[in-house]
Amino acid sequence: MTQLDDAQNLALVTSDDEVDALNAGFYGAIRYPWPPFYFERLGDPRFWADMLDQDLGRRDRPVLPPGGARVWVAGCGTNQAVITALMFPGAQVLGTDLSDGSLEVAGRNARQLGVANLELRRESILQGGYRGEFDYVICTGVVHHTANPARTLGCLAAALRPAGVMQLMVYNRYHRTRSTAFQKAVRLLSGSDGYHYESELALARRFVHHYAGEGGVADWLAEYRDMPDAALADSLIQPVEHSYTVESLDRMAADAGLELLVPIPDPVDTAAGSFQWELEMGDPTLQRAYDALPDVRRWQVTNLLGQEDSPMLWFYLQRRDSPCPRRSTRELCDAFLDGRFAPARTTRQVHASGPDGAFRAAPDQEVPFPVWRGKGDPRRVFEAVEPWMPMRATLERLGIATDALPAVNRLRVLLASSAFPYLRAP
Questions:
Q1: Please, which residues bridge with residue 172 across strands?
Q2: Cβ of 284: how many Cβ atoms within 10 Å?
Q3: How many distinct structural domains can be found in the chain?
Q4: What is the pTM of this model?
Q5: In angstroms, rounded to a whole number, what is the distance separating the alpha carbons of residues 6 and 20?
Q6: Other CB atoms within 10 Å distance of the CB of residue 210
Q7: 220-264 residue pLDDT tens
Q8: Is residue 353 part of a domain?
Q9: Is the dihedral of CA 292, 381, 51, 115 positive or negative?
């Protein structure tokens, strides 16, 4: 066992097998994430695959080619593999997890939804031994809970096909200072060198409902009062937790033979409006110095300046020897400006949870998708776009500058990305 005063929550890190056993027990107890109220299917089976290609500038070489595409959701929890199989019905999806309880929930939901392109297996990432098998690997919120994240990431990298892409999320160091400190405080108060879920959860609940200390900690804890136990436990008493900056994540990725491609706006950041990695500095000299940096260094500056307000570390990655050259943010923005787009249109069918907990299609819930929710310049562009006109010409006609990287990238993300799928290249 490592010393208790480590900088992160690593006191219980011993071996891969022991940490896997800790996580299997932990997530077996909390069933994380908690069940959604509904699942959805889109009428166009290629919709999300095409949006993934738009995110990466890969329209000429799809990440998930029609016929034979394989996806691995590593550490799938209760619902991520099911959601992924519904998003990519033309691909074969494998979901793996350490928790029998989580896999049981996922399997039950998949059967209720009639999902036929999903296989579930109980295994750790290290046990899989996959080599060059998957076009797309999804691993979000998992690597940072393993004994050796670098070794875990190496296993994920080895599983990619040469042109494959990975979606990865690890904790942002600046987001986790308070929660990591609290996790260790609970461990100390529990009076045990080991890990005891029930007693630590009881202590965390008492803090959330009764702690009267001064300062921001009491207000922060109060935010968990109405959250499900699964959310409270995952945030406040997780047994093992690493966290990263952009710089340390990039270094770990390089050691695994990977490179960062582009950030992914995640649901939490998009809801808060804090998903932008490209800063507007407010001073021409600062902006020139910032814009001149390579992508990863520029994102590290954003990480350092934003600290706890910087976006989550949620990125697409690929093998460094990929036959598909990495496109910089500048190149993605230039392709966006030179591209032609039309409003994205398909339908969404909702499968809602009934009183018995079963998910069933709601016949009256097949509705148009996506539903436009933008405002400001994105709304003006959306209303003015014509399939025959390059985006650059549309912006110039509207009097919107096309020479500022942060502004153009913001439009690219807010109009033509998986997070905001309003425009689609014909």
A1: 244
A2: 8
A3: 3
A4: 0.95
A5: 20
A6: 9
A7: 999 999 988 888 999 899 999 999 999 999 999 999 999 999 999
A8: yes
A9: positive
- Paired residues of 333 in beta bridges: none
DSSP 267-314: HHHHHHT----S---SSHHHHHHHHTS-HHHHHHHHHHHHGGGSPPEE
User: What are the E-state strand segments in 20-147?
Assistant: 38-42, 70-74, 92-97, 118-122, 134-140
Helix (H, G, I), strand (E, B) or coil at 220: helix
> CB–CB of 423/377 below 8 Å?
no
Same-domain status, 222 and 371: no
Q: Which of 220, 236, 252 is the last residue of a domain?
A: 236
List residues bridging with 95 in a β-sheet.
73, 120
Query: 83: domain range?
Result: 30-174+242-325
What's the DSSP call for residue 204?
H
> Which residues are paired to 186 by β-bridges?
none
CA distance 158 to 168: 14
**pLDDT confidence band for 146 (50 / 70 / 90):** very high
Averaged confidence pLDDT in the chain: 93
The pLDDT tens digits for 70-113 are 999 999 999 999 999 999 999 999 999 999 999 999 999 999 99
More confident residue, 32 or 314: 314
Instruction: Please indicate, yes or no, if residue 314 is contained in any of the structural domains.
Output: yes
265 DSSP assignment: -
Q: How far is CA 169 from CA 74, 143, 173, 241, in A?
A: 12, 8, 12, 13
Residue 190 sits at φ, ψ, to 5 deg, of -70, -15
